[in-house]
Amino acid sequence: MSYTTEYSQKLTTAEQAVKVVKSGDWVDYGWTSGTPRVLDKALAARADELFDVKFRGGILMWVPEIFKVENAAAHFTWNSWHMSGIERKAINGGLAFYSPIRYSELPRYYREHIEPNDVMMIQVAPMDQHGYFNFGPNASHLAAAAERSKVVIVEVNKNMPVCLGGFENGVHISDVDMIVEGDNAPMAELGAGGPATEVDKKVAELIVNEIPNGACLQLGIGGMPNAVGSLIAESDLKDLSVHTEMYVDAFVDIAKAGKITGRKKAIDKGRQVYAFGAGTQKLYDYLNNNPECMSAPVDYTNDIRSIAAIDNFMSINNAVDVDLFGQVSSESSGTKQISGAGGQLDFVLGAYLSKGGKSFICCSSTYTTKTGEVKSRILPTLHPGSIVTDTRANIHYFVTEYGIVNLKGLSAWEKCEKIISVAHPDFRDELIQEAEKMHIWRRSNK
C-alpha cells in the first residue's frame, strides 16, 4: 500500500479523532509549538463528558482551549515538563502542576518509568515522500512519547518547519493511527522577553570576555543570554559552534554574522545541534530544511557525555536566586513555581567536564517588586521552599553586573566572600552580617 493511500485511510476530522479520549486517560500534548490546536479545540468541546483526563506537555506558547472550559480543573489536569507563564497562572487554579525532571532523562522516563500515554496528539509538518511526519523544532522527547502511546494522532500544519537531524525527529505514518489536517496556523512566536537592559549588557560583556575562538555555545532564554548572543554577533570571535538544549533567535544572528562554522567540534562537526527551538519567525525560517542545523532528542543533546566531548564548551544560563552557600534556584522562589529545571544542571556539569569548558550562571544583582521595593537576588539562604536547581558544589562561574567570580573548589567562607563581592553594594553589609551568623564569613586579607 502506498503512503498516500495509507494517509487517505487514516485521515479524519478532529471531532472524530478526539472521541478516542476517555475519562481517566493520559493524553500527551507534545511540546512548545507542537501543541495541538484543532484537536485541542475539539477535545475542549467534550469537557462536560470527561473527568480526570491527565495531560502531559510543556512550555505552552498559547492558552489551550482545555484551559478555558468552565471549571477546567474538575475535568482536566495539566502536568508540565517545563513551565511557561501560561502554566504558572494555571497552577493557582489547581489546573496545572510541574513535573520535576532532569530533562536529559525525559525520553527514558517515557520508555521505562511513567504510565504510557493512552493518546498522543501533536502538530507536525506535512508527510514527506518517505512517509515521515517531521516534529518541527520539537524533537526533544517526542519520539519516545510516540513509542509509548497507545494511540498517536497527528495534526498536520503546513507552516511547521521541517527540522533535519538524522534520528528521532519525526514519526512514520505506519506508527500513526489518525491524521487530522489542521488550520495551518502561523508558528507561535516566543520573544526574548524584551530588549536587553543595561544590566543585561554588562553581564553579557563580562561573559563574552571569557569566550575563546572555537568555543561551542549553549544559551538559555531571556534577556541576558540574548544580550550575550548579540555581543557575540558583533564581536571578533570566530569558528564558533552550537550544541544546545534550546535554539533561540540569538543563534540565528550569530550564524548570519558568520561566526558559526562548527569546524572545531569533536562530534557533529559543522552541525548546530539542538533539542528544540522557539523564537520568532526568523528562527523558524532559518531552521526550515537547513542541513547545518541538527534536530536531535534531548537525551543526546543534554547528555553530559555529549557536552563533555566538545572542547571549550560555554554554557550560559539564568538564575532566579543564589544564596551565600552557592546554591542556585532557577525554577522557583520559595514555593512559587516560576520555570523548570530543564537541562541547566546537565550543562553546568557537562561544560565543566569539557576541556577548556566553562559554565556561567548569571542574574541581575537585584529586582524591583510591583510596589517599587528593590530586593537582592543574592540571599543569605534561599527562600523557604525554594528548589535547588544547581547544588553549591557544581557552580563554576557566577556573574552579575558587578562582576564575575569562579566558585569552584572554594571553602565556604571563600565562596561566600566571592558571592558577596558581586552583590549590589547596598546589600553587602547586610549579607556579611547574615554570613557571620551562619559562621561562613571570614574577611580575607586581600
Number of domains: 2
CATH class of the largest domain: Alpha Beta
CATH architectural type of the largest domain? 3-Layer(aba) Sandwich
Low-confidence stretches: none
Helix share, percent: 25-40%
| Number of H/I helices | 15
Shape: globular
Distance between the terminal alpha carbons, to the nearest Å?
78 Å
Rg on CA atoms, Å: 23 Å
Largest sheet features = 8 strands, parallel
The strands making up the biggest β-sheet line up spatially as: 1-10-8-6-2-3-4-5
Compute the number of strand runs. 25
Strand content: 15-25%
Instruction: Report mean pLDDT, rounded to a whole number.
Output: 94
CATH topology label of the largest domain: Glutaconate Coenzyme A-transferase
Family: Belongs to the acetyl-CoA hydrolase/transferase family. Butyryl-CoA CoA-transferase subfamily.
Domain Acetyl-CoA hydrolase/transferase C-terminal: 279-435
Catalytic activity: butanoate + acetyl-CoA = butanoyl-CoA + acetate
InterPro entries: AcetylCoA_hyd_C (IPR026888), AcetylCoA_hyd_C_sf (IPR038460), ActCoA_hydro (IPR046433), ActCoA_hydro_N (IPR003702), Butryl-CoA_acetate_CoA_Tfrase (IPR023990), NagB/RpiA_transferase-like (IPR037171)
